[in-house]
């Protein structure tokens, strides 16, 4: 039972962190619960589908289907996160003010919510399909330990939800003004980390072979499979043996986010109640 | 975010390095290793490969359940469906002993890759 708990918790931990951040980012947006719940649900359903077709997926791209699929959905999440940051640079002021009720702003807002719901869905999908395969394997085995394992799995899920809540309540303690800056930086780092992970998957698939030298090995200091290492891996993309390519991709995403926020972000205006653009 | 201009410069340098490095990818031939998995056991339980060359592990999962081949030190994590094959690419390694296991049966299903 404990083994099942640990396996499931390890998988849902990352999704828990990401959902917690997204909940904190969108806390002032109306209807956000429905969108995020939709993202989680879609992620769970997609995880079941991916688990059911795990064999077929693996066989795509000369046996590298899993790696390519993981890279693709990570890239999707990176695009959504970056787009959200750029969008917030333009509309964050309206959101913080009371102009938010304006009809058009709500429509615009649901675009941003859709982007974040996709991010949540991707996070749940990536970790969820492994949980589904594991639990299915145990339950299909029909051994006496089936129920105890299912119980352990459930406990793991509850712990994952706890991580999500802790992340959320930790973040919303930050005052609103600072919260915006904090979440902008958090999301930029999250996106950069995911992009580097996508690069790592493409390296494993041999689709990306340039700059594959390992730049440093800090496993002696902090292994990325320890709990803290894993948390930092999810949050800021920490990895103990990054390749030059992963570093380059990481920095490129940060730079692109910064440049796009500068280009498309509205110049800071005083909060005069002007009609929504 | 005053650190960002510096960051953009760094990224530019990285991008230039990236472009100039394309095409100089490693050309050493990979070592191919056959490995099978049955009744929660790897066969052989210990495999070996030469150092400083990429390694390709061809894994046959003979059990009907899915397993997840994982190695923390080799940075590999791959789901292998029941009764199916998988190819696992491992980058060139320094000499040493690298443990791997089935994540779904971490206690019993273990093996190691010895790089010499």
Automatic annotation (TrEMBL), chain A:
It comes from the Bacteria. Keywords: Membrane, Transmembrane, Transmembrane helix. GO terms for molecular function: ferrous iron transmembrane transporter activity. It holds the Pfam family FTR1. It is a multi-pass membrane protein. GO terms for cellular component: high-affinity iron permease complex. The chain crosses the membrane at residues 6-26, 33-56, 68-87, 149-171, 178-202, 247-265. It is found in: Membrane. The keyword Transmembrane applies. Belongs to the oxidase-dependent Fe transporter (OFeT) (TC 9.A.10.1) family. This is Iron permease. It comes from Bradyrhizobium lablabi.
């Amino acid at each position: 039972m404990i083994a099942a708990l640990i396996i499931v918790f390890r998988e849902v931990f990352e999704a828990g962190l990401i959902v917690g951040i997204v909940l904190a980012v969108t806390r002032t947006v109306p209807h956000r619960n429905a969108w995020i719940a939709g993202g989680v649900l879609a992620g769970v359903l997609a995880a079941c589908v991916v688990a059911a077709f795990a064999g077929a997926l693996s066989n795509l791209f000369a046996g590298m289907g899993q790696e390519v699929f993981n890279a693709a959905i990570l890239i999707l999440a990176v695009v959504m996160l970056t787009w959200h940051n750029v969008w917030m640079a333009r509309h964050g002021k309206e959101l913080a003010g009371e102009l938010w009720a304006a009809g058009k702003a709500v429509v615009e807002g649901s675009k941003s919510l859709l982007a974040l719901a996709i991010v949540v869905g991707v996070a749940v999908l990536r970790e969820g399909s492994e949980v589904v395969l594991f639990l299915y394997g145990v339950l299909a085995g029909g051994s006496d330990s089936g129920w105890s394992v299912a119980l352990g799995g459930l406990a793991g899920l509850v712990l994952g939800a706890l991580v999500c809540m802790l992340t959320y309540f930790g973040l919303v303690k930050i005052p609103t003004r600072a919260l915006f800056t904090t979440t902008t930086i958090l999301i930029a780092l999250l996106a950069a980390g995911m992009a580097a992970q996508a690069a790592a998957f493409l390296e494993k698939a041999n689709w990306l072979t340039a700059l594959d030298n390992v730049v440093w090995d800090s496993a002696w200091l902090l292994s990325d499979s320890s709990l803290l290492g894993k948390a930092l891996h999810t949050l800021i993309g920490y990895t103990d043996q990054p390749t030059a390519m992963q570093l380059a991709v990481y920095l490129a995403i940060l730079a692109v986010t910064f440049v796009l926020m500068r280009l498309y972000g509205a110049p800071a205006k005083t909060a005069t109640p002007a009609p929504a653009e | 975010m005053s650190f960002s201009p510096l960051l953009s410069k760094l990224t530019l340098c990285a991008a230039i390095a990236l472009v100039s490095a394309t095409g100089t990818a490693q050309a050493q031939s990979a070592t191919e290793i056959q490995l099978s998995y049955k009744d929660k056991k790897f066969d052989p339980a210990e495999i070996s490969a030469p150092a400083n060359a990429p390694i390709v592990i061809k894994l046959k999962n003979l059990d009907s359940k899915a397993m997840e081949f994982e190695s923390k030190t080799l940075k590999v994590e791959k789901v292998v469906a029941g009764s199916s094959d998988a190819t696992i690419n491992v980058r060139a390694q320094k000499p040493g002993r690298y443990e791997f296991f089935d994540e779904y049966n971490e206690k019993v299903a273990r093996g190691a890759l010895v790089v010499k």
